[in-house]
Amino acid sequence: MMGNRSFSNEYLKLFVMCKEFHCLPYEGGYLDQPAIYIEAFEIIQQTINQYQANRNRKGVR
């Protein structure tokens, strides 16, 4: 289980860096990126969206 958490942390770090610097992990466009990164980024973004929606629904800012 700890190994999976380590990979998850790496994907999360990469996601944050890509968002912050407005770049992709590899050269090229969206379709040039490794599928595992795109899948991980989509899951992370969906989780963030769900969390924010729940907070908004509760009126927490």
UniProtKB/TrEMBL annotation:
Name of this protein: Uncharacterized protein
Lineage: Bacteria, Bacillati, Bacillota, Bacilli, Bacillales
